[in-house]
Amino acid sequence: MTEQIGSGKGPVIGYWASQEQYPMEDLLTFVGHAEKKGFSECMTSDHFHPWTHTGGYGNFTWIWMAAAAERTRTMKFVTGVTATVYRYNPAIVAQAFASLDALYNGRVGLGVGSGEAMNEVSVGFEWPNVDVRLERTRESIEIIQSLWHGKAGQIKTDKIKEIDNEGFVTYGGKYFKTYRAKLYTPPKTTIPLYMAAVGEEATKIAAALTNGIITISKPNKSDKIFDIFDKEAAACGKDPASLEKIGKPRISYDKDYEKAFRACEFWRTSSLEDAFELEINDPRELEDKAKREVPDEKLKQSTHIVTSIEDCIKPIEEYFKAGFTKIYVQSTSPDESKFIEEFGNKVLPHFS
Q1: Does residue 275 lie in a domain region?
Q2: Domain harbouring 63, CATH code
Q3: What is the pLDDT of residues 261-316, one digit of tens each?
Q4: 236 part of a folded domain
Q5: Which domain holds residue 286?
Q6: Among 75, 158, 253, 309, which is most buried by a count of CB atoms within 10 Å?
Q7: Would you call the peptide bond into 81 cis, given omega within 30 degrees of 0 as the criterion?
């Protein structure tokens, strides 16, 4: 049987598949290549709109995950992240990932987060303050976990009104409800669930309710968030060492520095101030705003731009020294296949 995703056997370097940057068929080629070169896991974004209008894509991630799992042998897949606040009902998220796990035993994980306006507002929902979004996220996690596990007492919340002896869940939240809901196609394994977090409250929810935290914090700025995470996990009766701390370094590689830098342009929007809190949902507006407000120097700081693939080694070592247990390498290189080939040949062996 395939070793379950998130089993915690030492630091892991995974591959990041950007659903908003490449067509689905190219991503299938990339992930197949990545597996052959030694990557064992893949995290993939889950968006309706891309961050950038020019050259952007809007792939439906869940469909792609099934296709990618079918075309690979043992590669494990996790979303980074699925927003369970508006456009996705949490019971349907639970059903979708249970079905994926039923097909691809132990190879599927779920990352959740409080979302972005570009994905939620675009399909007709409001964009409230962060406190509302976090409470919706908390309720979503409680519903997903209760449907997956089907056992009273597994999730400590007074919003679960009943889980009967056959696993039917009645949940009465402020934002989400279920009434005698049951997954008739349950997961075959214990699906790991992670949460993206930047602020203190989100970090505490991740520690209390999930199997780990996904954070965009850099190694030199991760101490505070990891301290909050560990203390909250311990307060909830968990062993912090059993939980994942997941990062996502972005790399652009080419022997020509200017070419590697120009390939970062697609991600200028994600370097906007408070990018995840913006009320803008139109990628055209985001792109225009980023061109005005994000200077080249800030863009360079957001990405490891390297002309030798071995120059990736030291930055990745810094992640693990800072306490990250997993990283998923997001390449925005001019030639993605070349990046995968050289990274697999010269970087992954250093960490094996």
Answers
A1: yes
A2: 3.20.20.30
A3: 999 999 999 999 999 999 999 999 999 999 999 999 999 999 999 999 999 999 99
A4: yes
A5: 12-351
A6: 253
A7: yes
